[in-house]
Each structure stands twice: as C-alpha cells, then as structure tokens.
Amino acid sequence: MIAMPAGSARNLPHGWRWATMGGIAEVVGGGTPRTTEPSNFEGGEIPWVTPADLSGYTEKYISHGRRFITRRGLESSAARLLPTGAVLFSSRAPIGYVAIAHNPIATNQGFKNFVLKDGGVLPEYVYWWLKSSKRLAESLASGTTFLEISGANAKKIPIPVAPLEQQREIVAEIEKQFSRLDEAVANLRRVKANLKGYKAAILKAAVEGRLVPTEAELARHENRSYETGEQLLQRILEIRRRQWKGKGKYKEPIGPNSADHYKLPEGWAWASPAQLSAGQPYSLAIGPFGSSLKVSDYTSAGVPLVFVRNIRAGAFGGQETVFVTPTKAEELRAHWVNAGHLLITKMGDPPGDVCIYPSNRPTAVITADCIKLQLASNLLCASFFAYAIASAPVQRQVLGITKGVAQLKVSLGRFSSIGLPLPPLPEQIRIAAEIDRHFSVLRGVESDTSAICRRTDPLRRAVLRRAFGGDRRSTQSLK
Question: Using CA atoms, how far apart are residues 460 and 116, in angstroms rounded to an integer?
Fold first, then answer.
C-alpha cells in the first residue's frame, strides 16, 4: 500500500493516481572512486556530481560538477553512468537537492537517482514534485550521525501522477510563475543596487555643498554675516590652546594634507581629524594593542569592548558582546568611547567604515583596529562628519593612505591628517538633517524590497502546493 503524504487528499483529480518513485523509476545510487588513485580522476571526462555541487544551484538541469572521473574510476566504484533525463536527488548531507541530468552523468554516494522507466512521467514533473516534497522525503530518512534516505526508502517516496498532458501543463505553469518571481527578484535586486548608488550620490553631493543651500548663499539672501568654516576652525584651535591640560607644552595639531582635495564651496575650509578633535589627551586615539588587552582579559560581563565588526554592522551589544572587568577598563581609560564619539575602522578591505557610538550604550573600550575621534564639543556636528568620512571623496583619501599586504590598514598618524570638509556649523546641521531625511526614505524602500524578497520563497512553495494539491482540478488554480 502506498504511504501518502500526511494531510494529502486521498481523492485525486480524475485520471490521477498515487504511485511511488520505485514504481515509476529505477532507483540508482552513486559512488566515489578511490581518491588516492590518480587514474580515477586525472584526465577524466565523465561528469561527476556531489551534493556540494548543488549547494546554491538554481538551474533545473546540470551538465557537470566540479570534478570529472575516468572510465576506470567509474568501473572501480559504485558510481553509475546515468542517462540524460535522470533526476538526481541528494539523499544525505543534506537531503533534498534536485537536478535533472542534462547529459550522461555520475554522482557520488550522497544521491539516490531516479531513472524513469518509461515515457509516462516527465523528468521535469518529478523534479518539481521532489522540490515540493523535501519534508516528506526527510520523514523517510534515518541515521544517528546524519540523516540519510536508504535506497529502499527512496523507492517509497509517493508521487501523485497526473496524465501526461496535464503534467506538461503543470510544469509549464510552474515555470511561468517561477519565471515571474525570478524577474521580480531581479528587479528588486536592481532597486537595492540603485539605492546603494543613490546613497553614495547623496553623500557626495553633501560634502561638495550641493545638497542644501550654503550658509554663504543664505547670508547674502538674508543680508547678514556668518562664521565661515575657516573662522570656525580658528575658533576651535584657539579654544584648544586655552583649555590645554595635557602634559608638556601644547603642540599645534597637524593640518590636512593636500592630496585629493577638490574645490570647496564658498565659506567652507579643509581641516584634519587632528584639528577637529576635542584637543584633550586621547580624543583621537586607537585601541590598545599587544599585551595591553589579551583574549584572557575577556569576560562575560562588565565594560563592553568595541570591535571592527561592531562598526561595520553599526550594532553594539547583543549575544556576541565581549566585556572586560571594570578594573581592566580603568587601566584602558585612554581607549574609552562614549556617546557621540566617531568610530572608524583602521583595518579591513578597505578600512574606513564609520559610525557614531550610540547614546543608548554605556562607556566602552575600543579594540586595537578601531580609531576613536572625539570632536570639539558643541562646535561641530558629529553626524555630518560621520557622513563625510563615509563619502566617496573622503574614502578615496582613506584608500590612498591604506597600506599592507596580508592585511590592509590605516595608521592613526596618516588618518590624523586627511582632509575633511568643514562647512559653517549651521550648514553642517542642515546637511546632516537632509541626509537623514533622504536615508530615512531609502531605509523604508530597502525594508520593503527586502520584505518582498523574503516573501518569494513562501510564494514558490505555495505555487508548488497548488500545483500538486489534491483539490486542484486543473492548472487554473496556479494562474
């Protein structure tokens, strides 16, 4: 007696019948030639497929895998040469990959393959049924180390067999629906790619003074004066001199280098991170290195550490947070980071990712491959400079000072002297607000497109359920 899927209708449409894979096909396993014998593989021309070859594989037909075997390899192993049209089905590690042989092909032992006995069932029909029946197949598996479907149980996999003409209609309709979904997903991916380009264009326009009216333009229109970026920079530097409380004689911060600078709008100036930092000791610093902070110092609670991965993800906290004890954190006080500080990666491919340490997080300690920039308080807009560092013109500068072979890195010294555009403070605030507004809209679009992309898999499953559902009288329910 055929064991039908749980919940399936016993009354199939007129002309349909329940069968088993063993009833409609010869079940053929696979094998692996001895890998220590070069003659089994070298110069081989017989396509040989493993489950790994179908990982992420989205095509219906397959012509070959990553490796080929020789005739000797085929004959010395349990592998069999399968004919064109054989349906390959991975029966372990994992269960459920499906493909149709585009040409004669062999597989390893991770498959139970179905060579259809006659022309009564289409390979494509079997392909889509197996794609829709992964859980059903898994229910026939057994094993302790890993689940596997035996050859005997593979024969028991049930399949509702429709008349041949209806099989063709079902396959055609499934593929039409899936083609529409594929096209929709491709369009959504193009949208997401365009959003990325739009973000970059917004940031570039922002740091070139093209996103909002400049303070110079507004001042002329309103017949008033304003503090230019150069005047603001001089005010910042003067305050730094007056408030210096560090050890030794005060040293003027290094100015911006002259590399890759473009013409700034009226009223703007170039400034370096060193000049824009708060001027206090360690307001521009990297994390501890060497024996100052070791893995053995990590704890499951205490003061959190900030790693490069946190800056890239823009996320702090969560299950993967690593801590040090308050005592250890006190030793590392020079590397503390607080709300509003800018964090920049000094290593990566490439370095230069940036974010603002959030206000809802406690004091933390940055690790070795992070740069902390504490800006001059109340005189600069942190959001503007985070966006500026993320912009293409500044990122080109960061790339220009990146060194390394095994690992790309930016030294604190080189980063300290890159050129950052410095608009008047009111303009910084307006620019940051306008970027926020644009990015808020883009985040909404990104969220919507991601949600739609996520819904395509359930839609595909729904199409397959309707295609093989017992209550379906024709392909009309798919349309």
Answer: 25
Q: Using alpha carbons, list the distances in angstroms from residue 413 to 178, 399, 455.
A: 54, 14, 48
Predicted TM-score (pTM) above 0.70: yes
Answer positive or negative: Cα dihedral of 259, 260, 265, 269. negative
Q: CA 329 to CA 62: how far, in whole Å?
A: 57
Angle at 297 between CA 293 and CA 301, to 5 degrees: 125
Q: For the chain, what percent of residues have pLDDT higher than 70?
A: 95
355, containing H or E segment: strand 354-356
Backbone angles phi, psi at 456, to 5 degrees: -70, -35
Which fold is adopted by the domain 17-161? Adenine-n6-DNA-methyltransferase TaqI; Chain A, domain 2 (3.90.220)
Q: Does 17-161 match 227-422 in CATH topology?
A: yes
- CATH 2.30.130.10 fits domain 227-422: no
Residue 421, SS3? strand
Domain boundaries, the chain: 17-161, 163-216+424-479, 227-422
217, 268, 377, 441 from 427: Cα distances, Å: 11, 10, 17, 21
Collapsing DSSP to helix, strand or coil, 474 comes out as: coil
Cα dist. 230→226, 264, 279 in Å?
Answer: 11, 12, 18
Phi (first) and psi of residue 337, to 5 degrees? -135, 140
Place of tokens 């309709």: 173
Q: How confident is the model at residue 474 (pLDDT cuts 50, 70, 90)?
A: very low
pLDDT of residue 13: 86
Query: Could you tell me which of 434, 468, 375 has the C-alpha nearest to residue 202?
Result: 434
238: exposed, middle or buried (Cβ count in 10 Å: 0-12, 13-18, 19+) = exposed
Extract the runs of DSSP E, i.e. beta strands, from 61-118.
61-62, 67-69, 87-91, 95-101, 106-107, 113-116
Residue 114 near residue 26, CB atoms below 8 Å: yes
Q: Is the dihedral of CA 359, 363, 367, 369 positive or negative?
A: positive
CA count, 13 A, side-chain hemisphere, 307: 10
CA diameter of the chain: 96
- Distance, in Å, from the CA atom of 362 to the CA atom of 41, rounded to the nearest integer, reads 59
Tokens standing for residue 56: 């992420």
Q: Stretch 332-352: mean pLDDT, rounded? A: 93
Structure-block tokens of residue 454: 């996520």
Write out the DSSP string of 41-74: TTT--EEEE-HHHHTT---SEE---SEEE-HHHH
Only one residue has tokens 């359920």, namely 465
Neighbours of 222 (CB within 10 A): 9
